Amino acid sequence: MSALSHDIGPLSGAAPVKQGNYPCLILNADYQPLSYFPLSLWSWQDAVKAVFLDRVNVVDHYEQCVRSPNFEMQMPSVVALKDYVPQNRSPAFTRFNLFLRDGFKCAYCQSPHELTFDHVIPRRLGGKTSWTNIVAACSTCNLKKGGRLPRDARMHPSTTPLQPSMHQLQSQGRRFPPNHLHDSWLDYLYWDVELKP
Ligand SMILES: [Zn+2]
Questions:
Q1: N or C: which end of the chain has fewer CB within 10 A?
Q2: What is the pTM of this model?
Q3: How remote is the CA of residue 111 from the centroid of ligand 1, in Å?
Q4: Residue 78 has what DSSP assignment?
Q5: Rounded CA gap, 90 and 164, in Å?
């Protein structure tokens, strides 16, 4: 395993959302989620603040109310930004996004276990730490390949590693739905996302 953690950012994933927190789904101005993975969520406090700052339209809400001496409102469950945030930026080269691109599977044997990263062309032979030269690899395959070229190790990644577009990562992300989905969110997510109890 290489010292990749020095080259790209720390592993970061979606914080688990508990049902009692009244998380709010954030839609872009086109009513698509800002992000599928991690799903774009705000705390109810941030959602209420954004409503008061007039930055969002409330699309749906929880039954529960938030009260203060001066006001009362139902807690937003879905809000849409008033200003569109462009989505054509390229995804950050992070460990998490790389695993997501590769579907959390080893590029050599498809195992989802003990994932590490492999330089397809080893660093000692000039291989770069980049989207096009790093693949997810289980520790067994990583060890087996050692510091060799694919042809020398007779181990080739099942797909050619490429820089993914944001759209490609988003559609990968739909395969890994978050733990908690409020039913008011489902109209704004993909058809095949399942509602879990
Ligand atoms: Zn493997």
A1: C
A2: 0.63
A3: 5
A4: E
A5: 8
Written as tens digits, the pLDDT of the chain (197 aa) is: 333 332 222 223 334 444 458 999 999 998 888 887 778 899 998 999 999 999 999 999 999 898 888 888 999 999 999 999 887 677 888 888 899 899 989 999 999 999 999 999 999 999 999 999 999 999 999 999 999 999 999 999 999 999 998 888 878 877 776 667 788 887 777 666 655 54
Ligand 1 mean position, distance from CA 104 (Å): 11
Cα of 115 vs centre of ligand 1, distance in Å, is 8
**Domain edges within the chain:** 21-88+176-188, 92-164
Tell me, in angstroms, the distance from the centre of ligand 1 to residue 140's CA: 6
| Distance of CA 99 from the midpoint of ligand 1 (Å) | 13
Cα–Cα–Cα angle for 186, 190, 107, rounded to 5 degrees: 135
Task: Report the candidate in 46, 1, 22, 3 with the shortest Cα–Cα distance to residue 182.
Answer: 22
Distance (angstroms) between ligand 1 centre and the Cα of 91 equals 25
